[in-house]
Design a protein that fits this description.
This protein is mainly alpha-helical. It has 15 helices and three strands. It has a three-stranded mixed β-sheet with strand order 2-1-3. Helix 2 crosses helix 3.
Length: 290
């Protein structure tokens, strides 16, 4: 008896035919209202349900009686949602630098592991100064360890440029903490203090909270003892006008100067970063640059 075998036709015509159904009203039986722009998107229940458990749960086994109302997905931008549909229909997707993080976010939220991996590969390929802090935030939010490592390494190599981006100012406190704990940042501590202040001001404006309160989770990682006495005095004066750093943290830095020892006070971090500019008092610090 002849053993039946699985044979395949050409994949391209099949993929092209399915792609033509993406957001096509023809034969569609489910309608989405997507994003803040409330764009209407048409799809096909059976295809979404068999390809993605999220949509299987969302849509249920059968449509209700009458004309079903739209499914509202307000948090995902329309462009990203259409990319998700393209992947579900064709198992391929055209990604763009300006929207790939939104597609990645949707892939994670919808449990689409293969699409997530495709997005991660693409992000790493197109990573640049303008994208890297946004990518780091997504990595921290969703626990994407490999992407987080790539982003931190990129920022360490391009610190000055990255600190001037809008994405840096919009980092969460946990994401910023990862950066401030790095010895490999190519930036001087004085510039890092200024960047932290700018970050805290933006957060204070958005959250309607005091600057010092917003900064509290991260400022302990600023290495104030690396600053020269004149710089520390100027920082102290500015801190009186606009509180940012706890007074006791500044006192700890002064103790390091007075005792000429990097380990003078527990918690007073004196370890130099890769971008720390040399200052005369650094020769008294016990902890050398790594």
């Amino acid at each position: 008896m002849e053993t039946p075998g699985l044979v395949h036709g050409e994949a391209e015509p099949f993929s092209k035919a399915l792609r033509s159904l993406v957001n096509n009203r023809l034969y569609s039986d489910v309608r989405f209202v997507v994003g803040q722009e409330r764009q209407e998107v048409f799809a096909h229940r059976c295809l979404l349900a068999c390809r993605c458990n999220f949509f299987q749960r969302l849509l249920g086994p059968e449509p209700g009686p009458g004309v079903p109302g739209p499914v509202v997905l307000s948090t995902v931008p329309a462009e990203a949602f259409l990319a998700v549909l393209e992947f579900l229909y064709t198992n391929s997707v055209k990604l763009h630098r300006h929207s790939v993080l939104e597609v990645l976010t949707a892939a994670v939220e919808y449990g689409l592991e293969e699409l997530r991996e495709l997005c991660l590969e693409f992000v790493v390929k197109v990573l640049d100064v303008e994208l890297v802090c946004e990518a780091l935030q997504v990595a921290v939010t969703f626990g994407l360890g490999l992407l987080q490592e790539r982003c931190i390494a990129f920022i360490e190599a391009h610190s000055q440029e990255a600190l001037r981006t809008r994405g840096f100012l919009e980092l969460s406190a946990p994401a910023l903490l990862l950066l401030l704990r790095s010895d490999k940042l190519c930036v001087d501590e004085a510039d890092l203090v200024l960047a932290a202040r700018s970050w805290a001001r933006v957060g204070a404006a958005v959250l309607e909270r005091p600057v010092a309160e917003v900064a509290a989770p991260v400022v302990r990682e600023l290495r104030l003892a690396l600053l020269a006495p004149a710089e520390l005095s100027a920082l102290e004066e500015q801190n009186r006008r606009e509180p940012l750093i706890p007074v006791e943290q500044i006192v700890e830095a002064w103790k390091c100067h007075a005792l000429r020892r990097g380990d003078a006070v527990r918690g007073a971090t004196c370890r130099r970063r890769r971008g720390t500019l040399p200052r005369e008092h650094h020769r008294f610090l016990d902890l050398p640059l790594k």
